[in-house]
């Protein structure tokens, strides 16, 4: 530690967001940055704990005390080298990770002012790109074996990156027109500019990874059916099936899955054109988002930028506890408390304990949604609590409904011994940082298998 008393003398300072009146008119990243002096001060607050719970909480095992110490001393290149030993893509997690490490920080227990690890991570990586510390590896020794990765989302990219550096010739097959998975087609540009993905892709391609886009891979005989044989296969196809809501009126025009809106908007920003009939837009509409998670929040921010009239978000589960502490999941666990995102700050009516009964429409077009407030009561037989109606049904006016209720865990056939599954495809929908960790772990398993 450069200053062992820094956490007592310096308060937590977040970079914050661009003003609402400015940011809702474009899809530029909403988060701002601190200057170099302030960023080094924030890194100096890390106490280098004897038991670093941040390291324990991070699925990647990031060694935050080590790179925070380097950053506090202005040793940016050393900070990046330390960070990149555990995290292959810190420019992604530095923008969109919920920072499990910060919730487990001892300073969060002490005064709810944990070290700004996520922002520090992003700052270190941006400095590394800016100062050209990050260069394609040209010293990779090939071992003559070939591995196919199906899916170019976070897990697939992490597996491909590690396997490539181990010396395997890696080919990545992706059904979409570009790499990134939900990073590119699910997360809005105002949280993650897609140039950040492209920048990393240039590095991976220069290091020898081959990418094949527009490849909708089929499976037979326990393996993906590809255009050439491989010594091993990694399945990283994510969770492609969104959870649906089979209420009456689901077929009405104006009811869409959240990713239909989010992926289309990201493609529009990438220059892809859609007809008026194909275009999903919130412009001039009352929007209802069903689902209270991050995907729902992303829909809110996107609706504002498209020029909606209003946004309402409903969630069937109870309102989370407010404040920094969660009695049901105490430190160093991640608190399940009420989360207010930058999109919520831009304007949104939020309601909990609301059940959707029916989609209403006229001439095939959505006009509203009939909902009802409910209570959750203990089940006398044990297990899942019982949903009990409360009050009278009501109608929420809406011309656009976005279903953001999560994704179904994929079911897989029996694969051959040389096929490995990772990320959301293996574990169900989760965090990007967990997908990266799974991809790295799977790369090690493939290496062990091929070394037998």
How do you describe this structure in short?
By secondary structure, the chain is α/β, with parallel strands linked by helices. It is built from 18 helices and 16 strands.
List keywords for this structure.
single chain; 452 residues; alpha/beta; 5-stranded parallel beta sheet; 34% helix
Description:
- The protein is α/β, with parallel strands linked by helices and about 450 residues long.
- Helix 6 crosses helix 10 (about 115-130), helix 7 (about 90-95) runs antiparallel to helix 10 and helix 11 packs parallel to helix 18.
- It has helices at about 5-10, 20-25, 35-45, 55, 65-70, 75-85, 90-95, 100-105, 105-110, 115-130, 155-165, 180-185, 195-205, 260-270, 295-305, 340-345, 425, 430-450, and strands spanning about 145-150, 170-175, 210-215, 220, 225, 230-235, 255, 285-290, 310-315, 350, 355-360, 365-375, 385-390, 395, 400-405, 420.
- About 35% of the residues lie in helices and about 20% in strands.
- It contains 18 helices and 16 strands.
- The protein has a five-stranded parallel beta sheet with strand order 3-2-1-6-16, covered by helices on one side.
- The longest helix has 19 residues, at about 430-450.
């Amino acid at each position: 530690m450069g200053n062992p008393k820094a956490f007592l003398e310096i308060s937590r300072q977040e970079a914050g967001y661009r003003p609402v009146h400015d940011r809702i008119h474009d899809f530029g990243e909403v988060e701002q940055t601190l200057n170099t002096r302030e960023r080094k001060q924030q890194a100096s607050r890390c106490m280098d704990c004897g038991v670093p719970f941040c390291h324990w909480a991070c699925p990647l095992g990031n060694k935050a005390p080590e790179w925070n110490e380097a950053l506090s001393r202005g040793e940016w290149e050393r900070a990046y080298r330390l960070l990149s030993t555990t995290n292959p893509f810190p420019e992604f997690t530095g923008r969109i990770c919920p920072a499990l490490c910060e919730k487990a920080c001892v300073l969060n227990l002490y005064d709810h002012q944990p070290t700004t690890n996520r922002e520090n991570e992003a700052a270190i990586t941006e400095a590394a790109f800016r100062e050209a510390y990050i260069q394609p590896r040209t010293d990779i020794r090939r071992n003559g074996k070939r591995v196919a990765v199906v899916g170019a989302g976070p897990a697939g990219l992490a597996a491909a990156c590690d396997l490539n550096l181990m010396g395997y010739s890696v080919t990545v097959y992706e059904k979409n027109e570009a790499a990134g998975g939900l990073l590119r087609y699910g997360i809005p540009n105002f949280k993650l500019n897609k140039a950040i993905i492209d920048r990393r892709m240039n590095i991976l391609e220069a290091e020898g990874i081959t990418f094949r886009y527009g490849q909708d891979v089929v499976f037979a005989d326990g393996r993906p059916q590809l255009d050439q044989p491989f010594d091993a296969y990694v399945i990283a196809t994510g969770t492609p099936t969104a959870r649906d809501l089979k209420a009456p009126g689901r077929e009405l025009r104006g009811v869409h899955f959240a990713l239909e809106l989010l992926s289309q908007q990201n493609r529009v920003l990438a220059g892809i054109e859609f007809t008026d009939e194909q275009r999903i837009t919130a412009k001039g509409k009352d929007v209802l988002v069903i689902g209270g998670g991050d995907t729902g929040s992303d829909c809110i921010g996107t609706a504002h930028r498209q020029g909606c009239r209003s946004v309402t978000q409903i969630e069937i589960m109870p309102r989370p506890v407010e404040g920094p502490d969660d009695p049901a999941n105490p430190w160093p666990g991640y608190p399940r408390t009420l989360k207010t995102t930058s999109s919520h700050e831009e304007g949104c009516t939020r309601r909990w304990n609301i059940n959707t009964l029916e989609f209403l429409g006229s001439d095939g077009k959505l006009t509203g949604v009939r909902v009802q407030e409910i209570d959750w009561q203990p089940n006398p037989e044990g297990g899942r609590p019982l949903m009990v109606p409360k009050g009278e049904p009501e109608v929420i006016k809406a011309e656009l409904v976005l279903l953001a209720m999560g994704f179904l865990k994929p079911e897989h056939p029996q694969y051959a011994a040389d096929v490995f599954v990772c990320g959301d495809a293996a574990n169900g929908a989760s965090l990007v940082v967990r997908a990266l960790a799974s991809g790295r772990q799977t790369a090690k398993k493939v290496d062990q298998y091929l070394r037998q």
